[in-house]
Amino acid sequence: MERELLAAAQHGDEAAFVDLIRVRSDRMFATAHRILRDFDRAEDALQDALVIAWRDLKGLRDPDRFDAWLTRLLVHVCIAQATRERRRTANLRLLPVDGPAAPDDLISVADRDLLDRGFRRLPPEQRAILVMHHYLGYAPSEIAETLAIPAGTARSRLHHAHRAMRAALDADARVTQRKGRSA
Amino acid sequence: MTHERDVERLLDTWFSDGPTKAPDRVMDAVADRIARQPQRPAWRLTWRNTPLNAYLKPLVAVAATILIAVVGFNMLGGPRTNSNVAAPNPSPSATASPTPTPSPSPASTPEPTSTPVASEDPYACDPDRTCSGLLPAGDHTSGSFSVPFTFTTPAGWVNRVDIPRAYRMDTDAGIAPQITVMSKIAIAEQNAACDPIAKAGAGNSVQDIVDFLGAHPGLDTTKPVPVTVGGYKGQSIDIAVAKTWTATCPDKIGPFVLLLTDTETPAGRALGYESFETARWDIIDVNGETVIIARLHGSADGLLDQAAAAAQPIIDSIKFTKTN
Fold first, then answer.
1. Could you tell me the fold of the domain covering B133-320?
2. B220 with B210: CB under 8 angstroms?
3. Chains A, B: CB contacts under 8 A, how many?
4. What does residue A84 show for φ and ψ, rounded to 5 degrees?
5. pLDDT tens track for A95-120
6. Interface residue B244 vs chain A (CB under 8 A)
7. Interface ipTM
8. Which CATH architecture has domain A96-183?
9. CA–CA gap between residue B254 and residue A151 (Å, rounded)
């Protein structure tokens, strides 16, 4: 059924394409939101990625690669958008994020704030790799395959992203401790 | 101190929170947009991915020009014969001079290769390369690299590439950088397609490379300092992509500085760096052949010194075995 929808979409059937992506849109949106950390921008990124997918769908030769191809498009759109945003806000100070408190008690609100600050400081490529690994559950080889980068590069970027997050958390923790002492 | 496992656990939990449903209006908006967006024909999408080396491109361009001329001549009423002149085929080769968009537009995102997702092999070679894989702690010798050398590593290093023009290894342990030893050096010309094109008139001596890096508008570099590797002298220089640099490549997202190609025919190397990468190059003269030992740190976090130092014992252990 999926293959038939895909084949129809590749022959210009818009309804088939919408059916095909409707079941994937939630997961794609969730992925975009985790990379971009912004509801509106995630929505824009999802729209853009899906329109590009429609436009370039005829070039997809292997139907089994449809999901990987969609993920790659989405991640690239998110990285491009985050890069633009990063340039635009390069001189802005990061503020604590307002939002609903965590519904669980596995991570404290303070930890969430630290994670969010650290994550937003990462280069978009590293953000995307962290989301692919920790949210989508991709192994480094799958990240490499999806992004068409060498496996060693994927592993290296993941390693650096983890290290950068750890450094950001430690740095923020130190600042918090210093502030606590001087207050 | 936050440990690696703590960070990974925190990230797992943190990412599991957050919205999981796309707003309904997204699908409406997409349906509206695709109704106004024609699909691209398949041939326009696949030719970008067709490997076409720089050596063949002029031949293809000439063939395409001849094909277009012949077809045009016939269509314009040239002498008719009974020979079957092929109709113009909308194939990639008919586009004599493709000009990939130099912007980071995701529109140029090619289809992933049809290779199935490989099982996780932490010691795999880079695609289409030969290598030794995992290197046990101890002494090693390069295999195919054109300027043979020996070196010593601790446990955990993996050789990913061992071909005549390059020997590459990396490790997931600590902050150590990726190490690539390169020969057959040629300075590359930055070009929109990022094809491996040598810069006309550029030399490839140690000083030529140092001068090129120092004067490159796309790079921030340190002052070169003398260095000796395996008894051979040269210069060491740190490089990072300048914040003002905007040129990129079709398969890159952000700024990319193309630096090196090679002297092979056809050239296969198109080495450069992205804006989040920093590197230290030890450029040395080994019996008249310029060899670069690049330590690549995959982050612009200011820790290149620390990363480079982590690999210094390996660099210090290198001994070139080529005797001229």
1. Protein Transport Mog1p; Chain A (3.40.1000)
2. no
3. 218
4. -60, -45
5. 333 344 444 456 677 778 888 888 88
6. no
7. 0.81
8. Orthogonal Bundle (1.10)
9. 20
